[in-house]
């Protein structure tokens, strides 16, 4: 059995995939890992590249599935994984040099944990690597029976990034922890909220896991036409987490912390939805209506006056009028 299973979802990344694969293949130390390239119905050369890498490089496997999104592709990888530990890597990013060697040492130094959390560096378009501002990872074990305290610790270290995690596969399997397939944007954050209900002991590592590529063309975040899809994902996540709480998977305090965390994801998207394109705003409205329970939540929103004003408008005027007014006031491009 390999020590590590590295799961790489792949979709239309032919220009980035070779660099990603190279970063794994060149890891130092024993070949005690497998790398599962999960082609999620790519329409470019990515699928064929996966097959070629699997044929040429020991330890690599190619899996093919119909397009279902990042969550479904990761679940396909989890189902096929054989390693003791699971790592996720996005196919347009790169595994940090020496990561697996550092993890072998960390697992020996801090045994007995199911969830290890590390750092990342941002890979700028000019090739430079920079620290992400505002993250405060304190290395070492963290244990708490308070869900909100665990969430705050994870949040400070740079939340919603599963490619900075090393997870015990047996723990995931025994607790039936999987991504929700219908959450097709920001898949990491509801998965984190789910993991935290089953894990009271975290171990933070001063180890760089990933070089995260910034500024990639074609990103879901770079086009306002993708806004309805983002809100649909938030609705799906809200539904799953509400079901988890209703069936005893999260107590009242944990559910309240989840609502604040969900709202902190929701509010930046809601503000972004105040676009001049009326058709985009109309497409967002059904989802915004379903997300009304979040309108009274959000820890981060209270820290900025303009955000508090937007929150108040959404609560008093509703999303349709609020987005229309904000779109009218937004500066026009010349």
Itemize the secondary structure elements and their pairings.
Blueprint: E1 4-10, H1 17-25, E2 33-40, H2 46-56, E3 60-65, H3 70-80, E4 85-88, E5 94-95, H4 99-109, E6 115-123, E7 129-130, E8 140-143, H5 147-156, E9 165-168, H6 169-174, H7 188-196, E10 201-213, H8 227-246, H9 252-272, H10 278-290, H11 305-317, H12 319-329
Parallel strand pairs: 1-2, 1-4, 2-3, 6-10
Antiparallel strand pairs: 4-9, 5-10, 6-7, 6-9, 8-10
Notes on the structure:
By secondary structure, this protein is α/β, with parallel strands linked by helices. The chain has 2 domains: 4-213, Alpha-Beta Complex (Spore Coat Polysaccharide Biosynthesis Protein SpsA, Chain A), CATH 3.90.550; 223-329. Helices cover 43% and strands 18% of the residues. It has helices at 17-25, 46-56, 70-80, 99-109, 147-156, 169-174, 188-196, 227-246, 252-272, 278-290, 305-317, 319-329; strands at residues 4-10, 33-40, 60-65, 85-88, 94-95, 115-123, 129-130, 140-143, 165-168, 201-213. Strands 1, 2, 3, 4, 5, 6, 7, 8, 9 and 10 form a 10-stranded mixed beta sheet that branches. α8 (227-246) runs parallel beside α10 (278-290) and α11 crosses α12.
